[in-house]
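#lab-general

N.A. 3:47 PM
ok so I finally got the sequence cleaned up, no stray characters, all 511 residues accounted for. can someone with queue access submit it? mine expired

B.Y. 3:52 PM
send it over

N.A. 3:53 PM
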Amino acid sequence: MVPLLTSLAACGGANNRESTDSDANSRHNVLLISIDDMRDWVGFLDGYEGVVHTPNMDRLAAQGIGFTNAHTASPQCCPSRNAFFTGKRPSTTGLYENDVWWKAAHPDLVTLPQYFKNNGYYSAGAGKVFHHTPGHNPPVSWNEYQDQVFDDPWSFSQSSPTRYFLEYGYRGPMIPLPDWKPLHGMEEVSLPMDWGAIPGLDDHDYGDIRVVDYGRDFLSRKHDSPFFLALGIYKPHIPWHVPQKYFEMYPLDQVVLPEVMENDLDDVPAEGRRLARRRSRDFDAILKHGKWKEGVQAYLANISFVDDLVGDIIAALETSGYANNTIVVLWSDHGFHLGSKQTWHKWTLWEDVTRIPFIMKVPGLETAGSLCHQPVDMLNVYPTLISLCSLPPKEGLDGYDMTPLLHDPETAWPWPAITEYGPGQVAVRTMDWRYIRYSDGSEELYDRKKDPREWHNLASGSQYDDVLQEHRQWVPSAFADQAIKREEWFFDPCSYTFLHRTTGIFVDGNE
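B.Y. 4:20 PM
back already:
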């Protein structure tokens, strides 16, 4: 782990650069870095029990505030990102799953980049910022946007570009890929649960590197107004295809597997076990073929690949002249199980999936280099950025302004971190406890200090009634109905309009 002792000036370097017109502007720029499926296996979080190579994220935490108890709003890509960018919880919007288009369901919602755009910012983005289906990167949010460049030969095959254009709104150039088979030889796993370096693919052809190139180009240009720049990195989302050098950073004999308990799920309610088994067949196959270490190695390789990209983005900022006046926010949409709770992937309400890397670097922050251990969730980013950039307050947001924590990471913070997955299903994370309530009323309670792996469910113990009641109060009193699902809409990618197949409701995504 890299100690968080280096001063902001020593780490950043950019504070000695000449100011630009943007630096003179009274409002900060914003650089938002979104990462997909990145759990707490980052140096400054100590989430991995072995050695993980994340020097750039650790350095960024040393330049700002690293939040050690930060949690996602939902353990799935689309609802997590919808909550982050709308500032509203799934229980408020009904956006619980991947199969909804927020723009069709809520055409009047003003997202974070759109709010900045509406208030005089130049709004730009690239990669997976919102979810990558139509209706999740609507034109109204951006002055310019580069769609994600996928490099996955399975989900985004050259043999069916039209289908993926219609279904996912994918508009980028297809990357020529060789005809090859999965490297791990497990036919039982669900595509695209694959890993390895893509044979014959140049390092620069990996899609996420195109996102960095876009950011580098954007930051090299002169901007006459403050900007909101969002860069979305797809990895370590599956498939775990990155250059071979990243796999070589983690020899198999040095890979540390998650510690598990054989009967871990025995005291978990039926609904919790159902969520754990949702995609457990991949873990079953990985165990059957003796590939657990290879899978964990692949995930670690992807983490370090992402860390290098983060380093490239920050280096571009530091040499751009905008560093003195740019807020940097780094976050992940959720974590990832790698065998804990006898499962693989995400879609649960336990710590391994809800805890995420989250860093905020604010120019001139006197507390730079500190760690904040207070529980926070990603609903808080929207109001915090509004406050830091002196924009007009926005009514109706579900989160809270974290500016007090930036100025004093140990200040009193009365709100827990809340994660939701489906109507009625909530995890409440306080400083020392995790409480889970499922839709059927069943519960879990874990003492995080004594039981950091969440092996012992205490919800049935009468001696914890006060703790349970304290956490129950944070469960939303009502849950919105599931938003209209994607298959019920017809989407025209040329005009960016939505038509509901049954009701005839028409939504113009350009407005």
